[in-house]
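thought: fold this chain, then report.
action: predict
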Amino acid sequence: MTRQLMNSLFHLDQPGVPQTREQVAEWKTNLQQLVLQGAGAVPAIQEFLEKNVDLGFGREGSQALGYSSARAAMFDALAQIGGQEAVGLLGQTLQATADPREIALLARSLEQVEPQLHQQEILDAARQVLAMASNGKSEETEVGPLFEVLQKYGGPGAVADLEQASAHWNYYGAIALGQLPDGAGIPALIQMVQDAAGKSKGLAALEMLTQASSSNPDARAALIDQVKGNKIAPSMWPYLASVLAGDQLQLRDSSLDAGTPPGLKELKTFHISSGNQNFYSAPPLALTPDQINLQMALIDELIATTSNPIGVQTLQSARNTLSRRLPQTATGAGN
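observation:
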């Protein structure tokens, strides 16, 4: 029965995925029936996973079915089934795969079933594949999900990994460091900015330091020190304009979170060919008047500490952008 359910879910030679409302409903029913088989479904799922093939659902299929691919659906099915057999298969697949997105999805499933019991094997898998990529064995691989894994499950212990990885993936490393819980990555960002001494290699760290300065006192003090000491090169100032205006850098196509939220205004996407890095910047959906006013106060303080004309121009431009956003935010809050 489980094999029949698997066959109904995934025909690897089929021309497409469920399209109509009825087809989508039937697919979801079959998936739930598979989950209800419990441990009895694990062997059939294992047979499928060990084939090392997949069926991608595409953007529309992913939205309709709730999964990006057949393997992603099976990882979630195992998490729903739970128990020793399902957890064992998730762990076995984690050790076997070299796909960064799969590592992230498997990490999420293992954490769902047995929180904090598999963090070491999750981090080991991420580090191993990241090391392979840094050695050029998979140069074009999208490794963003590995940085998400280190950031979400690595805690303060991931700082050293992210610092090292920043040599190959400067933006991915800086973004993950800036988003570590409790500001654990801020000292590393400060050191990276100081070591770069105004050179372009420290730009990613400087952008994330600027982003963090709105909420982290150490980041704020370090940014003021950079501006006051005229340590920011004229060519780097324009890159800070959108971040100073409240935009935030985030990884594109997140594997662990909801991904790029729909309806983001002023969304700007970026691709860095070195390391195949993909990210975006946009203001938060809930940028409050208080947040805007605090950011304006920071900008005013920075304007008062620099005589660099490009710096002053960039800061004033960011302030003007915040001014335009303030009435919009206030209006939205009133509604």
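thought: worth noting. Residues 98 and 129 are 6 Å apart (CA to CA).
final: tokens above.
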